[in-house]
Design a protein that fits this description.
Blueprint (H helix, E strand, L loop, with lengths): L8 H22 L3 E4 L2 E4 H24 L4 H20 L3 H23 L4 H6 L7 H28 L2 H22 L1 H6 L11
Antiparallel strand pairs: 1-2
């Protein structure tokens, strides 16, 4: 049974951002090149994917070992990365890995949308410790995040289908996280208006 300890912030950041930055660095190093491995020729993109998938598996396993838990979204992301990344490597086709963010965002949108219909605050279960709000605040944030994820899925499809491979890598590595950050900042008033009182009771 792994020890259940809180990770230091820099360790958490390294485990979450490290695999993505390694993918970016690998792609930039080998883009435009053909890499031969085990008698198979891979493009720089597919080779970077081949590096990224096991690195993410190791980083996720380390995080589980250190904390004794993983968020449902982390597990879903890992499964989709392994499936779509594995297909790109196996079939030597980068399109599957480029589709992966679309599938992830559509999955998140579907789960959050269903939680709204079922009147379940699943987002609150995941984020309540970091962001204490009343029930109405979580409903509003869930709706907004559902629409955000649908928009991100559509944006990913447009970028990978109409732009260069390098443009997609920049978009995936820097563009998507920036959009998520700006979204969270744009909802600052929502967090303030629906913040719980110091007694932590939810009156919603």
């Amino acid at each position: 049974m792994p020890p259940k300890n809180d990770m230091k912030p820099w360790v958490k950041s390294a485990l979450e951002l490290g695999p993505v930055l390694i993918f970016f660095a690998s792609f930039m190093l080998f883009r435009g090149d053909t890499v031969q491995l085990f008698g198979q020729d891979y493009s720089g993109f597919v080779f970077a994917t081949l590096i990224f998938v096991p690195v993410l598996i190791v980083a996720t396993a380390v995080q589980w070992w250190l904390t004794g838990k993983l968020a449902p979204m982390q597990i879903a992301t890992l499964v989709l990365v392994v499936v779509f990344g594995g297909l790109s490597i196996w079939l030597n086709d980068p399109r599957f890995f480029k589709m992966k963010p679309t599938m992830i965002y559509l999955l998140f949108a579907a789960l959050l949308g269903f939680s709204l219909l079922a009147r379940k605050n699943w987002l609150q279960l995941v984020l309540s410790e970091a962001l204490p709000m009343d029930a109405e605040g979580w409903r509003k944030l869930t709706l907004r995040m559902t629409l955000l994820f649908v928009g991100l899925a559509l944006a990913n499809e447009v970028v990978w289908r109409t732009m260069s491979e390098t443009s997609w890598v920049y978009f995936k590595t820097f563009g998507l996280p920036l959009i998520l950050f700006l979204f969270l900042m744009a909802n600052a008033r929502l967090y303030r208006d629906h913040a719980l009182q110091k007694d932590g009771k939810d009156q919603g």
